[in-house]
């Protein structure tokens, strides 16, 4: 009903302090009424979850929010309702969804967010706001029970989007990969978020904010391109893929 | 017993004709006795399977081999034994394993190869010779029933391996991704094949051939580096990850 999402492409641009560019967007999104934020660090693989939580909570506390981490709780789903907002960090999407499954957190977080708890994600944390994890850029290092994700939005996000390719390398470009996705998933749009950009969803509207262009891939349709401040609410309509 | 594998990183180097650099290796591996080769085109997504088969069979026929494609057969597993070798092309690894599962081909091909049918793969086709598809570079555009693959070798292959990264882009490098894999799969080695290189397995021995270096990632161990002609048979020993 009153779903509120802030879906960031990435945590940090080159040369910035950690969570640099998102800070003002996080503050604007959470505002002054929010006090306690629950952090989900499970996407972290080559960093300890303690270190990950320390890095993130330092920035959130500087913005005026108290933060706890799910990895320090025996049953995070039982205390979810004590928090005012939830934040899911990046890392490996497969590891993230696998641990959310194992801990029974997917329905609990879905329920909280559908009932109005503000949700912030970046990278893997934005990916899983989509219906599935099928547009992640990550290596499938662990096997989840399912590719199904939170399904807060009716389209897929591709974070860290770039058109750039490595010279003299035959691996698929990002555009080739996303074209593969829409070829086998013809009714699902893909919204590409370049680094330094985000989607903000509230009041049943969705806006693209930040460094563009934001490209939308649709099966057998020309790519649509959007810029800072553009309204993408049309993506929320059923059948938007043939608009 | 008499397993024979030719596992190529990629089909074609920049500026070459299709299947350019592998041609001499394929001819040397298949030799003169092989007549009929079965092609598995299922990794193809944005190319029609007819077009894919045409491109590959043109090259194999130029080398003196007759080729048929599984996508033109109602029950390819029933006629597998009529062929002298099997070739699995690249594309999307998730699509490939999903279609092999759907057509019941995984046990049939495993059985044929374990009984001596020579196997050639490139890119996704080399990936699936590993125990799982967990070191693919591909986007998970479809959900397979399982990440389990042919398991012809006791380690993972990473094809199209490169150390290069995109400037000013925060996405994970290949090395970061493979380090994530060995962090959560500590007993499994990863053999990285740069483009223009391959592994050749026969007589219970395995050699690295082509443009190096070939890097082997092992959990909590220094990366080992190999060059053209090096013997990697030590990877076939149980417990090789702690050698």
How would you describe the overall organization of this protein?
Two copies of one chain form a homodimer. Chain A has helices spanning 22-30, 49-62, 76-79, 93-102, 105-114, 124-127, 174-184, and strands at residues 5-8, 36-40, 66-69, 85-88, 119-122, 156-161, 190-194, 197-202, 205-210, 214-217, 224-226. In chain A, 26% of the residues lie in helices and 21% in strands. Chain A has a seven-stranded mixed beta sheet. A four-stranded mixed beta sheet of chain A has the order 6-7-10-11. Chain A has seven helices and eleven strands. The first copy, chain A, has a single domain (5-236), classed as Class I glutamine amidotransferase (GATase) domain (Rossmann fold), CATH 3.40.50.880. In chain A, 49% of the residues are buried. The model of chain A has no long low-confidence stretch (mean pLDDT 94). The first copy, chain A, is an alpha/beta fold. At the A-B interface, α7 of A face α7 of B.
Summarize the SSE layout with pairings.
Two copies of one chain form a homodimer.
Chain A: E1 5-8, H1 22-30, E2 36-40, H2 49-62, E3 66-69, H3 76-79, E4 85-88, H4 93-102, H5 105-114, E5 119-122, H6 124-127, E6 156-161, H7 174-184, E7 190-194, E8 197-202, E9 205-210, E10 214-217, E11 224-226
Parallel strand pairs in A: 1-5, 2-3, 2-4, 4-5, 6-7
Antiparallel strand pairs in A: 1-8, 7-10, 8-9, 10-11
């Amino acid at each position: 009903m009153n779903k509120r999402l802030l879906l960031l492409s990435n945590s940090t641009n080159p040369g910035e302090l950690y969570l640099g560019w998102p800070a003002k967007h996080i503050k604007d999104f959470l505002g002054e009424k929010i006090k306690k934020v629950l952090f989900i660090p499970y996407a972290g693989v080559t960093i300890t979850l303690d270190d990950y939580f320390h890095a993130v909570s330092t920035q959130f506390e500087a913005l005026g929010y108290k933060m706890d981490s799910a990895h320090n709780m025996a049953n995070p789903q039982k205390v979810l309702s004590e928090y005012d907002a939830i934040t899911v960090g990046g890392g490996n999407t497969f590891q993230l969804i696998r641990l959310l499954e194992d801990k029974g957190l997917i329905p609990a977080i879905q329920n909280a967010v559908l009932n109005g708890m503000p949700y912030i994600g970046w990278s893997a944390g934005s990916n899983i706001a989509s219906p599935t994890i099928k547009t992640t850029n990550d290596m499938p290092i662990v096997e989840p029970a399912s590719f199904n994700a939170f399904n807060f939005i009716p389209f897929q996000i591709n974070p860290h989007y770039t058109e750039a390719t490595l010279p003299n390398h035959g691996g698929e470009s990002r555009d080739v990969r996303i074209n593969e996705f829409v070829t086998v998933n013809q009714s699902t749009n893909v919204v590409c978020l370049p680094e330094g950009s985000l989607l903000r969803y509230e009041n049943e509207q969705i806006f693209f904010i930040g460094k563009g262009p934001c490209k939308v891939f649709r099966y057998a349709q020309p790519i649509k391109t959007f810029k800072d401040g553009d309204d993408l609410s049309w993506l929320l309509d059923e059948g938007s893929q043939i608009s």
